[in-house]
Amino acid sequence: MFAGCTVALATPFRDGAVDEPVLRAWVEWQIAQGTPVISPVGTTGEAPTLSHAEHERVIAIVVETAAGRAKVLPGTGSNSTAEAVRLTKFAANAGADGALLVAPYYNRPSQEGIYRHFAAVAESVDLPIVLYNIPGRTGRNVEVDTVERLAGLGPIVAIKEASGSLDQVSEILVRTDLTVLSGDDSLTLPMLAVGAEGVISVAANLIPQDIAALIREFNAGDLRAARERHARLFPLCRELLGLAPNPVPLKAALALLGRGNGELRLPLCPLDEAALGRLSQALNQYGLLNR
Predict the structure, then answer these.
(1) What is the predicted pLDDT for the residue at 291?
(2) How far apart are the C-alpha atoms of 26 and 176, rounded to whole Å?
(3) Which chain positions carry the site (Part of a proton relay during catalysis) (predicted)?
(4) Most buried of 67, 75, 156, 170 (most Cβ within 10 A)?
(5) Which residues are annotated as a binding site for pyruvate?
(6) Is 4 helix (H, G, I), strand (E, B) or coil?
């Protein structure tokens, strides 16, 4: 149910607070662009720096604004199992269509601990759950054996894979029936080639129709068009995810395009002049600054 292009939505701030009018405008823009799934309050949404009340408020606003015109898949993960359960229950009660749960971070649990964490959430709600594996941020890879065990739990329907390993993606696809989604824009086409069904995309904050077109071209068997689009997307995606930790370059790009003020929360800091110049060049080469 979450195949295709999902936008990993950024969270706009103004003077230190969530900018609710801009957030609503961003949701409306995504719907107008035809984005089928919106995923707020994840890594791109700067969830670690939101208070519990802000986290819940963003979920409520996105669900209310989407109003059934797009699915809403909020991030509800935590390194505390009790907090992940609480947030996921809130999302369910708010009317979300699913929940994206990152693996527990910082406390580096064993694979058994990871399994019990996700199982506790799955048992607490009647809501589709998408696992999120990003070991570069969490400090722990959710290993395929663990994913296979979790796939046996009914509410768990998909996994956002950002391990960077096509071998791991392939093994998950061989051993489970989960929908696999790319967690890295630059790997979307390679992952589609081995059986993934979509992406939870940072770049879709800027170019959702182009990300969707890549998936559509691949699914239609037009591999030449998909490869050409991937080649065009790659330099922009590389800068969006490589110049600084996500969502620093994305927020800067949105500001350059007149779609936000670029405000971040510490400990994230704005790009320096050199990095901003590289980002501007990538946006210009893609043609975004001339639209």
Answers:
(1) 60
(2) 35
(3) 43, 106
(4) 75
(5) 44, 200
(6) strand
Which tens digit of pLDDT belongs to each residue from 240-279?
989 999 999 999 999 999 999 999 999 999 999 999 999 9
Residue 41's domain spans which residues? 4-221
Q: Is residue 76 part of a domain?
A: yes
CA distances from 168 to 15, 52, 119, 146, 155 (A): 42, 33, 21, 12, 22
- Band (pLDDT 50/70/90 cuts) for residue 188 is very high
The whole-angstrom separation of Cα 150 and Cα 138 is 18
Residue 226 lies in a domain: no
- Give tens-digit pLDDT for 152-187: 998 999 999 999 999 999 999 999 999 999 999 999
CATH code at position 33: 3.20.20.70
Q: Catalytic pick from 71, 115, 132, 251?
A: 132
Grouping H, G, I as helix, E, B as strand and the rest as coil, residue 196 is coil
pTM: 0.96
Report angle CA 118, 45, 251 to the nearest 5 degrees.
Answer: 150
Whether residue 23 is predicted with pLDDT greater than 80 in this model: the reply is yes
240 part of a folded domain: no
pLDDT in tens, 108-118: 999 999 999 99
- What is residue 290's predicted lDDT score, i.e. its pLDDT? 72
- 107 contacts: CB under 8 Å, gap ≥ 6: 79
What's the rounded Cα separation, in Å, for the pair 73 and 129? 9
Contact 5, 198 (CB under 8 A): yes
261 within domain boundaries = no
Does 251 participate in catalysis according to the annotation?
A: no
CB 62 within 8 A of CB 90: no
- Is there a contact between 78 and 84 (Cβ–Cβ < 8 Å)? yes
How many CB atoms within 10 Å of residue 201?
A: 30
What is the number of structural domains in the chain?
Answer: 1
**Separation CA 125–CA 29 (nearest Å):** 30
Question: What token pair was written down for 131?
Answer: 């696992």
Residue ranges of the annotated binding site are: 44, 200
